[in-house]
Amino acid sequence: MTLWLMAGLLFTPLAWAVLTLLTDFVWGRRVTWVGILVQVLVSLGLWLTVAQHGGFYYDLGGWGAPLGIELRVDGLAVTFVLLTAAVASACGLHAGVYIDQHKPWHRYFWPLFWFLWSGLNAVWLGGDLFNLYVGLELISLSAVGLVALGGNANALRASIRYLLAALLGSLAYLLGVALIYGQFGTLSIAGVVAWLDNHSAPAGPGLALALMITGLALKTALFPLHRWLPPAHGIAKSPVSALLSALVVKASFYIAARLWLAFGESLGSLAAAQMVGLLGGAAVVWGSWLACKQAQLKQVVAYSSVAQIGYLFLLFPLTYSVSESVSLQAQQGITLQVISHALAKAAMFLAAGNLILSVGSSRIDALAGVSRFLPFSLFSFGLAGVSLMSLPPSGGFAAKWLLLQASLGSGQWWWALVLLAGGLLSAAYLFRIYRASFAENPETDQFFHPSKSLEIIPMVLAVMALGLGFVSEQVLSVMALPFAEEGAP
């Protein structure tokens, strides 16, 4: 059973990418809908397997490390696999209706979509440093191609900037991987941890960890390495923007978090942890402030992503040289923040795409009067914003509450100020959009009404982000499950 689940997660998306490459947009959409159903069922099956039997290591093809590819299937990994299935399915269904099927280059959306999904699953389950790099590159190249599908000069310019940033981040990460291999003779994360547990930490790998974290921070768009993100997310098609913000930038952060939790105590330092946290806090304030000043709707949401990414990097100071209970609170809070932000931001980008389609303009002031003609999409946008503002009972509130407790419990009260400032600034730029939508518009009969299916999809994601606060305990309980004794169940 496990063999089929792993094959379904890793190889089915690649097969679907090849199939859709041979079809036009319409047939690619039909093939994709079948593939989405398969991926959702396989993701649920693996999640239930881990929930019942615990996590396990899986040797792909029966070849173990260091010769083979070792996959780490634990509660955190399958949670992100299931999150990917939910968000990618919503974006795929939305794109099938939203994207213009008559433009010939749009047929490449589906193969790029499936290559991206395959890379995401590879990252969530990866157990060694090099194969994480392979998955990360597959994600980056697919994402760059999806941005370029905008088809105009601005889209190409944004995609090239994205490509250069991604390649630079990958080079820094790969250099760190080479240094780790030169010191420890293995690329398995578990193998390096086992070596560090039995030996004193050498000086060299500290540089390797710094290089890898820096490269991943660039790919995650941590301030001040964020300049590539707003143009790419703002110019891309709305389903693509949702994928980029909800999942793509989370993949590089996921690797950075894995590395820090595995090697941070041995190879990191208090100064490094506080510096990364400081950059995260600056991202929250600066990104939110810039979001308040944007004239374009999708640019507001894009700069909001810069701000929300900053919260994630509070993991570094809140898990270094603290008690086990505080570290656990921080890890749980960051995990809920990732899930909540993925659902909410995907809903916001899809709803923003609907609003732009309705009014025929991406400017915020063009939304005047749309509240009477497209209340469903506007409500989805606001409902997702509840989670970004960290209002109860949303998943964002549960995440920030855990981070607040970790901040105070570790004596680092200054991060609590960042959480408070971020929530207030989020309310400022979200209410600005709502104020524009309720303004008077003398041309109230000029709005286009999108398909009802386009409006339902972001609503479902927004409700999931809100409802995460009610089921957060159940989600976290699966993540905390221990590993099985040997191999797969």
UniProtKB/TrEMBL annotation:
Name of the featured protein: Oxidoreductase
Record flagged with keyword Transmembrane helix: yes
The keyword Disulfide bond is assigned to this record: no
Protein localization: Cell membrane; Membrane
Keywords from the UniProt entry: Cell membrane, Membrane, Transmembrane, Transmembrane helix
Membrane topology label: Multi-pass membrane protein
Family classification: Belongs to the CPA3 antiporters (TC 2.A.63) subunit D family.
